[in-house]
Design a protein that fits this description.
The protein is of the alpha+beta class. The chain has one domain: Sufe protein. Chain: A (Alpha-Beta Complex). The chain contains five helices and three strands; from the N terminus they run H-E-E-E-H-H-H-H.
């Protein structure tokens, strides 16, 4: 059902936790399935130098959160804003159709954290 990469990110998630004094934070959720994702980012000189997440949800929700944090670290704000849920899914080797919403939440949590950053640093 899940790729080896999805299972690896679920069983050994990267970047779990919170960032003290985060440059930006965003929390999103899907009432239909109950998944909730919180993303924190640390930005220095326009580059995301750290990203952490806390996710309440299924295997796919944890895996997409983990992969998304890995994919935005070292990226500029503009590059991170361009990241799509499809790119996260592709990097994980795909998701079952019923779990695609988890990758959408990962994308939305990144955008929410970046929007918070932009509000704080306008």
């Amino acid at each position: 059902m899940y790729s080896d990469k999805v299972m690896d990110h679920f069983e050994h998630p990267r970047n779990v936790g919170e960032i003290d004094n985060a440059s930006g934070s965003g929390t999103v959720g899907n009432a239909k399935c109950g998944d909730i994702m919180k993303m924190d980012i640390k930005v220095e000189n326009g580059v995301i130098v750290d990203a952490k997440f806390k996710t309440f949800g299924c295997c796919a929700a944890v895996a997409t959160s983990s992969m998304a944090t890995e994919m935005i670290k070292g990226k500029t704000i503009e590059e991170a804003l361009a990241l799509t849920n499809k790119q996260v899914m592709d990097e994980l080797g795909g998701l079952p159709p019923v779990k695609i919403h988890c990758s959408v939440l990962a994308e939305e949590s990144i955008r929410a954290a970046l929007e918070d950053y932009q509000k704080k640093h306008a």
